[in-house]
Write a structure and sequence with these properties.
Blueprint lengths: L2 H26 L4 H24 L4 H52 L11 H4 L3 H28 L1 H31 L5 H40 L4 H11 L8 H13 L3 H31 L3 H15 L3 H22 L1 H6 L10
């Protein structure tokens, strides 16, 4: 074996071993990757404050990081706790209002069947012969739903320790990233076998995409939650603030999330024979709430992330499907890296790609 072959074999072994151990390490800490990722995202937004306080405190990074953490916790927890108080009060109001109404409707349905439906409902008369079967199935659905709710509450209670542990890990990682993050990033980039120009391109695309996605998602949630809450309040739906908050959370699902709130509300108003309010709420949801997402998301996320509207939508949906809630950020980030890597490929093989083209610019035969 020649010396060159020996060197290549050693490099292949080291690369294989490094990839295998890296995969094993990531699999080992997979349950905490989301906490580390969120800490990294917060670091991007808090690093300017960290740098300013570090200079103010004479280079004491640890002290500056502690102050930054305290400021972030206070600024975050204050509004959140106030919102939780309002939403909790609204949730109790909703429960007190909706629960008796549901019981009344179920009781009426058991007594009268489909005869309780308004006369304008299509196929109303055709449904009446099947009301006994529907009542039986509805009972099964309600029982199943109750079982799911109980199991979900049990799961949440059992995951309390895990949530506390991940929160502690996120805060500790955030402190660690604020004090040593830039140095860690430089060491990681040193291992990427690319020129300084392409390294800077990848970093810039990742950071800009994360910033655009976080700011865009937050602003869209606030806008759609507020618009939905206003529409529900105007239509006379109880607990508008609660349902507006639910809409804000659901707005992470493009085009689908908010209708999960205002569509049932419009149907509820229609069943109650408040037809003007039902039609008004439906029009408000379709024209105003849904349009706000179509207008804001591509401009807030796609423009800064330098991606098309289609790429933003696909990467967001794909990220949510694959990674859960964190995928809202991870999906567009992967898409940005995808387009950047292919740009680097095109630049690196520019000469070879031109050689494969004919005189008219089309691929040579």
């Amino acid at each position: 074996m020649s010396e060159a072959d020996r060197v290549n074999l050693q490099r292949l072994f080291i690369i294989t071993l490094a990839l295998a151990l890296s995969g094993l390490f990531l699999w080992m800490i997979r349950g905490y990757l989301s906490a580390l990722f969120i800490a990294g995202v917060f670091t991007i937004f808090l690093m300017p404050l960290q740098s300013g306080l570090t200079g103010l405190f004479g280079g004491r990074k640890a002290l500056a990081a502690i102050i930054v953490l305290l400021i972030a916790i206070l600024l975050f927890l204050g509004p959140v706790l106030a919102l939780v108080g309002i939403v909790t009060d609204q949730a109790l109001t909703v429960a007190d209002t909706v629960t008796p109404w549901i019981r009344e409707q179920v009781s009426n349905f058991r007594e009268q069947g489909f005869a309780i439906l308004p006369t304008w409902v299509p196929f109303r008369e055709n449904l009446i012969p099947y009301q006994d079967e529907v009542i039986a199935k509805a009972g099964e659905v309600i029982s199943s739903f109750s079982g799911v709710m109980v199991s979900s509450l049990t799961s949440i209670t059992g995951d309390t320790l895990s949530i506390v542990l991940k929160s502690f890990l996120m805060l500790y990682a955030l402190f660690f990233f604020l004090t040593g993050g830039p140095g860690m990033a430089q060491k990681a980039l040193y291992l990427v076998p690319l020129t300084e120009k392409y390294r800077a391109l990848l970093v810039e695309r990742v950071i800009s995409t994360i910033r655009a996605t976080v700011k865009g998602t937050f602003l869209i949630a606030v806008v759609q939650g507020s618009l939905t809450g206003i529409g529900l309040f105007a239509a006379g739906i109880p607990g508008a603030a609660f349902w507006g908050t639910v809409t804000a959370v659901l707005s992470i699902i493009p085009a689908v999330g908010p209708p999960l709130v205002w569509v049932p509300a419009a149907i509820y108003l229609g069943v109650q024979e408040h037809y003007v309010a039902a039609i008004g709420l439906a029009l408000w949801g379709m024209i105003v709430v849904s349009t706000s997402d179509n207008v804001l998301r591509p401009r807030l996320v796609g423009k800064d992330a330098q991606m098309s509207d289609l790429m933003v939508l696909l990467s967001t949906l794909g990220g949510i499907t694959l990674f859960g809630a964190v995928g809202i950020i991870v999906g567009p980030m992967i898409a940005a890296l995808f387009s950047s890597v292919w740009y680097i490929y095109a630049q690196s093989f520019k000469g070879l790609l031109k050689e494969t083209e004919g005189e008219d610019g089309t691929p040579a035969a």
